[in-house]
């Protein structure tokens, strides 16, 4: 399967520009070769500032004011107020910040929010239907797969990706493909059991 | 934490990509798995980040004549799902970078341009004789990966150049990459070795061996490969090749391992990698 990002944004223009006081610019598509003049009409310099960035999270469109340097993780937690996604290391090593983007699991601390415009972002808050938990959430509770719970939202999101990809066929495979999610309470055996059970139920 | 801001650009064509990269202080941004934390730590201070992932020419894998063309922004997750024999040594590396979530974002081009001595796809690119296609407003140039690296995290690519694709010639034979790490995953190579062997009637007719994390850059060891040509890759020939590999390495002490330990690991790792490449070469040659 190719998680092709091309054409993902119907509104995509030649460039998405974020500069001081300029909303995500919508320069008309410009044919190759004749774009020098267009470049000159853009504001000179590289001053940066916040702009509205459309982010579709759990089916709802949010348009937080963001500087381009804001990671998806910080946008979710600090600008949109969805604090279910956790920040453990902020450098790609612990997996606490795992979310799904267009159904694929990624670490939200390693990606800028502006890079994810127009995509379907799913966080742990978007899993339950009212009171009914997602099967992976239920399996984590049923298997006592957490102690402090800090890593759990990332584990749950990663487990959904792992099962979806077809990488939960055996305990060994689950361990391998869940290796991007650390648990300082070391609940690993119970996490593997939860993923194994959820994988059976979801298939 | 630096507060310097930058401009984010998202070109959709190669023409716009290379124009955007010509801006002062511009950096290409692919998966961001190296660049985002490096920028946050203040190690780089880009004025412009040019997102390369939305340019069609930079995505996907195709056969073009007698080569396989890999778009520079193809993710390691997408690459890892292929089972193309001719890319084995590259795919072995692509499949073990970081964790599943890292590989969903990380790209082959990003791994090459980062040019870490421990980059897991780089030894594979070397033994399979890959060629980088670089493009800027000044034109296109093709640089063999063997001439690409100039030092730790340094290479011949100019900031204004985009890596558009990586071409790997389709050849007979089998290839493999193996690394040694202390943890099974989420760790960087302490030592890495790639090998490619072409076998005809049980005899090695062509070979390449590359080593990673034991020299300032990933590098080929032609002397080691030469000792295998004309042999059946028996124990003696492989032991001989291992000597050359050790002689060509210049490992250092760092957080991931000591020089002594690296040298000790290098020999058995080279042997294992050669045996895997040999198995694959024999499997793929006509009966
Ligand atoms: C938790 C974690 C674990 C990791 N584990 C490993 C590992 O096991 N093995 C390993 O090898 N690496 C590892 N890495 C490093 C990193 O994931 C890889 O190097 C990855 O392949 C980089 O690709 P990227 O697309 O994310 O690059 P980016 O971060 O987007 O870019 C990296 C560099 O390449 C340049 N660049 C990227 N694409 C282009 C292009 N098309 N043209 C011109 N310049 C370009 C950028 O300007 C930048 O300088 C790890 C990183 C993290 C955070
Ligand atoms: S916070 Fe993102 S991986 Fe740790
Ligand atoms: S439950 Fe505490 S870190 Fe995993």
Automatic annotation (TrEMBL), chain A:
Pathway: Alkaloid degradation; nicotine degradation. It comes from the Bacteria. SUPFAM superfamilies: 2Fe-2S ferredoxin-like, CO dehydrogenase ISP C-domain like. GO terms for molecular function: 2 iron, 2 sulfur cluster binding; metal ion binding; oxidoreductase activity, acting on the aldehyde or oxo group of donors. The keyword Nucleus does not apply. CDD domains: fer2. The keyword Metal-binding applies. Residues 51-127 form the 2Fe-2S ferredoxin-type domain. Pfam families: Fer2, Fer2_2. Gene3D superfamilies: 3.10.20.30, [2Fe-2S]-binding domain. Residues 31-41 have a biased composition (Low complexity). Residues 31-53 are annotated as: Disordered. InterPro entries: 2Fe-2S-bd, 2Fe-2S-bd_dom_sf, 2Fe-2S_ferredoxin-like_sf, 2Fe-2S_ferredoxin-type, 2Fe2S_fd_BS, Aldehyde_Oxdr_Iron-Sulfur, Beta-grasp_dom_sf, TAT_signal. Keywords: 2Fe-2S, Iron, Iron-sulfur, Metal-binding, Oxidoreductase. PANTHER family: OXIDOREDUCTASE WITH IRON-SULFUR SUBUNIT (PTHR45331:SF2), OXIDOREDUCTASE, IRON-SULPHUR BINDING SUBUNIT-RELATED-RELATED (PTHR45331). This is (2Fe-2S)-binding protein.
UniProtKB/TrEMBL annotation, chain B:
The keyword Kinase does not apply. InterPro entries: CO_DH_flav_C, CO_DH_flav_C_dom_sf, Diverse_Substr_Oxidored, FAD-bd_PCMH, FAD-bd_PCMH-like_sf, FAD-bd_PCMH_sub1, FAD-bd_PCMH_sub2, Mopterin_DH_FAD-bd. Pfam families: CO_deh_flav_C, FAD_binding_5. Residues 1-173 form the FAD-binding PCMH-type domain. It comes from the Bacteria. Coiled coil: none annotated. SUPFAM superfamilies: CO dehydrogenase flavoprotein C-terminal domain-like, FAD-binding/transporter-associated domain-like. GO terms for molecular function: FAD binding; oxidoreductase activity. Keywords: FAD, Flavoprotein, Oxidoreductase. This is Oxidoreductase.
């Amino acid at each position: 399967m190719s998680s092709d990002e091309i054409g993902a944004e119907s509104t995509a223009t030649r460039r998405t520009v974020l500069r001081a006081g300029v909303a995500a610019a919508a320069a008309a598509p410009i044919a190759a070769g004749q774009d020098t003049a267009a470049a000159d009409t853009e504001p000179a310099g590289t001053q940066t500032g916040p702009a509205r960035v459309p982010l579709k999270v759990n089916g709802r469109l949010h348009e937080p004011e963001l500087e381009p340097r804001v990671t998806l993780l910080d946008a979710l937690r600090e600008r949109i107020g969805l604090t279910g996604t956790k920040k453990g290391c902020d450098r790609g090593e612990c997996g606490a910040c795992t979310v799904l983007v267009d159904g694929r699991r990624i670490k939200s601390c390693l990606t800028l929010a502006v890079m994810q415009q127009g995509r379907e972002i799913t966080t742990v808050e978007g899993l339950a239907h009212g009171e009914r938990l997602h099967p992976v959430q239920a399996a984590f509770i049923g298997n006592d797969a957490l102690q402090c719970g800090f890593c759990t939202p990332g584990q749950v999101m990663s487990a959904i990706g792992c099962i979806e990809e077809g990488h939960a066929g055996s305990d060994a495979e689950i361990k391998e493909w869940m290796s991007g999610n650390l648990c300082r309470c070391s609940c690993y055996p119970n996490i593997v059991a939860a993923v194994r059970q959820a994988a059976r139920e979801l298939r | 934490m630096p507060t310097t801001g930058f401009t984010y650009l998202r070109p959709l064509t190669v023409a716009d990509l290379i124009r955007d990269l010509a801006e002062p202080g511009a950096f290409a941004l692919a998966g961001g798995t190296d660049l985002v934390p490096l920028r946050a730590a203040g190690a780089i201070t880009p004025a412009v980040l040019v997102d390369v992932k939305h340019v069609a020419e930079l995505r996907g894998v195709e056969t073009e004549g007698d080569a396989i063309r890999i778009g520079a922004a193809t993710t390691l997750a997408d690459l890892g799902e292929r089972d193309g024999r001719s890319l084995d040594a590259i795919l072995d590396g692509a499949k073990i970078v970081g964790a599943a979530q890292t590989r969903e974002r990380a790209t082959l081009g990003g791994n090459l341009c980062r040019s870490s001595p421990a980059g897991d796809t780089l030894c594979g690119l070397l033994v399979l004789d890959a060629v980088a296609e670089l493009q800027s407003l000044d034109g296109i140039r093709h640089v063999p990966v063997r001439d690409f690296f100039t030092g730790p995290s340094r290479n011949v690519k100019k900031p204004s150049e985009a890596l558009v694709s990586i071409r790997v010639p389709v050849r007979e034979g089998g290839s493999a990459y193996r690394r040694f790490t202390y943890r099974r995953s989420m760790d960087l190579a302490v030592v890495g070795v790639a090998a490619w062997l072409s076998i005809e009637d049980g005899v090695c007719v062509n070979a390449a061996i590359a080593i990673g994390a034991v020299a300032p850059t990933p590098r080929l060891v032609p002397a080691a490969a030469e000792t295998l040509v004309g042999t059946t890759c028996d124990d003696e020939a492989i032991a001989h090749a291992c000597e050359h590999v050790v002689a060509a390495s210049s490992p250092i002490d760092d957080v991931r391992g000591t020089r002594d330990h690296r040298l000790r690991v290098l020999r058995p790792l080279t042997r294992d990698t050669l045996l895997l490449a040999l198995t694959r070469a024999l499997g793929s040659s006509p009966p």
